[in-house]
Amino acid sequence: MRMYDIIDKKKNGMELSTEEIREMIKAYVEEQIPDYQMAAWLMAVYFQGMNNRELKDLTLAMAHSGEMIDLSPILGIKVDKHSTGGVGDKTTLAIAPIVAACGEKVAKMAGRGLGFTGGTIDKLESIPGFVTGLDQQTFFDNVNRIGLSVIGQTANITPADKKLYALRDVTATVDSIPLIAASVMSKKLASGSDKILLDVTCGSGAFMKTLEDAVKLAEIMVAIGEQAGRETIALITNMDVPLGETIGNALEVKEIIELLQGNAKEDLKEVCLALASNMLYLAKHGSNKNITLEDCRKMAEEKIQDGNAFRKLKEMVTSQHGDVEAIENTDKLPKAEYYYEIVADVGGYITSMDAKQCGMASMILGAGREKKDSEIDFGAGIRLLKKTGDSLEVGDTIATLYSNSYETFKEAEKILRSAYKIGREVSQKEKLIYARVTKEGITYY
Ligand code: URA
């Protein structure tokens, strides 16, 4: 195999064989292919795409580039959830305890944030003492004992994706449907769960900007999961507007605690319940053919109302050495020293928002990483008091910024103000869930 020929074939829109794809991924992980050649191949894929067979081969080659986790020591059906990324996307923190409180097993490996998107692991690490690097046996034991554990991805899972993602990040090839599909699904297959729920985000704060592209990505990922013998469902969710009221690690943990205590913002609660009910449906319908999504939603709602989901969150925090007092009394979570209010200088209605710019403003405040090794300020972030569809009077507070470095406020304010479009016309609240994709087809909402 010559890498030159593989690049040339893809550049000319030709199909690569299984053998070529396998050998290329193996050689790249073994450092026998330089980044400049792989970058050229990624750009060729960006423009020429891949057919379903090539994509399946690429996903499997990436999954098998490292350890394939065997979750069989965990009893019962294991169900995983993955989001393609967003701003204020904190749903895993609520869904995992809800699903575990309903008796199912969540053994989840999650990632860190980069750029304008946040990561579940950073949010969890904002809880004082919380350990995300458990050894495999403790991870298995915790899931068997309490039903859930969320840890960071171990270094030996999908090394091909780690190398390729870093290269895509600097070669403008992240937002390619086949490359995202192979990246997400290789990690999901290697992580070992039996069932997979995908949250495919769509809008200004997501990689997929249009519903058409989001559906295409969802269909491809569902097909890859099903072909690999893992039942897979995708929900397409709105990421034009950040989810819930907060962006930033400790702020988001606090918002999730409020949700699990029954005080949620409507949009966050709606998306969490939709995701949780689909996870429950995946876990339960194999042994109970008559169960419906509505039954699963009722179960999820009950577990919030009766406090069991909140108890599960506390059990997980305790089992991962976190300070459970900070969950019971959120004043003990990290807090920023300074805050700054952004006040409306015109009245009207918020007609749209740019979620990516909101994420950028939060990153500037210290809540996100500009580069892979940037330090995170756990107390930093934004509370959005006004969102799309809200009315606004001069003098209203639109958002509050939090940071430990006062000098970041000016730039963050400028970016955040540019994220809001304000008009004279009342605008509709946007849909939260656009569609559900299964192997049977697509349901639009
Ligand atoms: N999330 C991933 O895991 N991979 C991508 O390529 C994009 C989003």
Structural features, described:
The chain is of the alpha+beta class. It contains 17 helices and 14 strands. The termini are far apart. Residues 84-85, 165, 174, 179-180, 183-184, 207 line the site of uracil (URA).
Q: What structural keywords apply?
A:
four-stranded antiparallel beta sheet; globular; 17 helices; 445 residues; 45% helix; binds uracil; alpha+beta
Uncertain segments: none
* Overall helicity: 40-55%
Profile the largest sheet.
5 strands, mixed
| Strand count | 14
Q: Which structural class fits the helix and strand makeup?
A: alpha+beta
How far is the N terminus from the C terminus?
A: 47 Å
Described by the principal axes of the CA atoms, the overall outline is: globular
What is the helix tally? Answer: 17
- Average of the residue pLDDT scores: 96
Q: How much of the sequence is in beta strands?
A: 15-25%
Radius of gyration: 22 Å
Bound ions, cofactors and other small molecules, one mention each = uracil
Spatial strand arrangement across the major sheet: 1-4-5-13-14
